Predict the 3D structure of the following.
Amino acid sequence: MTETIVVKELSKSFGEVRAVRGIDFAVASGEIFGFLGPNGAGKTTTISMLSGLLRPDSGSITIDGMDIASHGRDVRRILGIIPQEIALYEELSGRDNLLFWGGLYGLAGGELKDSVDRALELVELTDRSKDPVRTYSGGMKRRINLCAGLVHDPKIILLDEPTLGIDPQARIRILDVVKGLAGRGKTIIYTTHYLEEAEQICDRIAIIDEGTIHASGTLAELVELVGGKIMVTVSGGFGAEDVRELVGDAEIDHIEDGELRVKLLDRDSTGMLLGGFFSAGLQVDGVAIKEPSLESVFLQVTGRELRD
C-alpha cells in the first residue's frame, strides 16, 4: 500500500493553547481518511498545516514524496483544498467563481472552460451556474465551494467540514461526490464532527480531541476497541457504593452518585443488572443502552461524548 501522506510528530500552538500535540498518521493512495472530533479538536489546524497555510512548530509532513517545508509550491499544485469557510465571491456567478479559481491554478483557454464544465456537472449545478452565488441556497454554496477546490483535478483533496450547516439532501449529494472522487483514485482527508459521515464514507478514521489522536483504524478495528460490548448507563436516586456490588464482574466505565455506566456482553445482562437494582429497592430514573459503535468508541477513548 503506497502512502501518499505521511505525518510525524506534528505540533502547533497558539500562545498557551496547544492546538495539535505531536500527532502521527499516514494516508494511503486512493483512501478516504477521516478526522473525527468536536469543534476545537485540532482538525482545522491540522488541515491548515497540510495545505501550507500554517507552519508547524515541530514535526514533518511528506505529501506525494515531497517534504512540504522545502517543496511547498510543488505540493500545493497537486492539492485541492475545500475550507470550512465558504471561499466564494457572492456577486459573481458560480461559473465565474470557478473560472477565477481555475485561473489561479494555472488553467486557461479551452482547458479552463472544460474543467469548469466538468466540475459543475459533478455537483449537478450546471443549470444554475450563471446565477449570482448570493442567490444560492446554503447547500448549493457548499457544492460550488467544493468545486473551487476540484476544478484543477487535484491528486490529493483536503476537505474541512464540507457539509457544515446544510440540509440532509445537500449533505448526501456532497458525500456521494466525495465517494466518487475516491473511486477515481483520489487521496482524501475528510474532517467532520458527524459520526454518521465518518461511518459512511471513511476507509479509516482518526479520533482526535484536544489536539491528540486517541485512536485510528477502520470502523471495525475501532469498534473492536470496546470489545464488542454494549454500554449501559443507569441514572437514578442511588449512591455509588450502593450499586458497586450489584455490577459483579462487569467492567465499570464510570460510577458516581446517581449514575452508573458499565460495559455488558448483551441485553440479557442488562436485564439482570436492572433486576439487581429493583431487588435492592434502588430508584432507577432512566436507562440508556448503546450498541458497539463509533460513538461508543469515541466515548471510551476520549472520556466524553462527541457533542460535549
